[in-house]
């Protein structure tokens, strides 16, 4: 049986926030290591993570033949598993390929996504709270 958080998409939003947080970790590491010789920038493609999350959720379902059967619980994949090297062309002599301007742009976009998802979760909980209050 699906919980209220499955039915209204809160669990999907929670996973989205996990993915955005992991992307933020990678961007922060890239910025912090911008002057580290031979450091190679890493990235996380949010759309790849979420595409895998939703496709795995639809194909890995187990079906039960009776409503009293125990429903399977599956943990979504860790977003850190989708971290890859950016493979930027480096013009520096020390082999570091971090592009600070690109990373700062990605950080700004990622911050906006994080705020959007947290606002959406807040809206879901406000709706649940209102439903409980009016009953």
Write the layout of secondary structure elements.
Layout: H1 4-7, H2 10-32, E1 42-44, H3 46-59, E2 83-85, H4 100-134
Antiparallel strand pairs: 1-2
Helix pairs in contact: 2-4
Gap from first CA to last CA: 23 Å
* Protein structure class: mainly alpha
Largest sheet: 2 strands, antiparallel
Return Rg in Å: 20 Å
**Strands across the major sheet, in which order?**
1-2
User: How helical, in percent, are the residues?
Assistant: 55-70%
Mean pLDDT: 85
Strand content: under 5%
Number of strands: 2
Contiguous low-pLDDT stretches (5 residues minimum) are none
Order of helices and strands: HHEHEH
Tally of individual domains: 1
Shape: elongated
How many H/I helical runs? Answer: 4
Name the features:
135 residues; mainly alpha; 2 strands; 4% strand
Task: Give a quick precis of the structure.
With 135 residues, the chain is mainly α. 56% of the residues lie in helices and 4% in strands.
Can you walk me through this structure?
With 135 residues, the protein is mainly alpha-helical. Helices cover 56% and strands 4% of the residues. The protein has 4 helices and 2 strands. It has a two-stranded antiparallel sheet. α2 runs antiparallel to α4 (100-134).
């Amino acid at each position: 049986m699906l919980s209220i958080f499955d039915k209204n998409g809160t669990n999907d939003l929670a996973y989205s926030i996990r993915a955005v947080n992991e992307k933020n970790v990678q961007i922060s590491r890239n910025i912090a290591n911008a002057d580290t010789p031979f450091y190679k920038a890493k990235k996380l493609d949010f759309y790849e993570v979420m595409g895998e999350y939703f496709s795995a959720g639809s194909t890995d379902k187990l079906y039960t033949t009776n409503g009293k059967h125990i429903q399977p619980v599956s943990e979504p994949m860790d977003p850190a598993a989708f971290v890859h090297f950016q493979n930027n062309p480096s013009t520096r002599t020390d082999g570091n390929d971090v592009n600070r301007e690109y990373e700062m742009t990605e950080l700004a976009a990622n911050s906006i996504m994080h705020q959007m998802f947290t606002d959406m979760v807040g809206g879901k909980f406000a709706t649940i709270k209102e439903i409980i209050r009016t009953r």
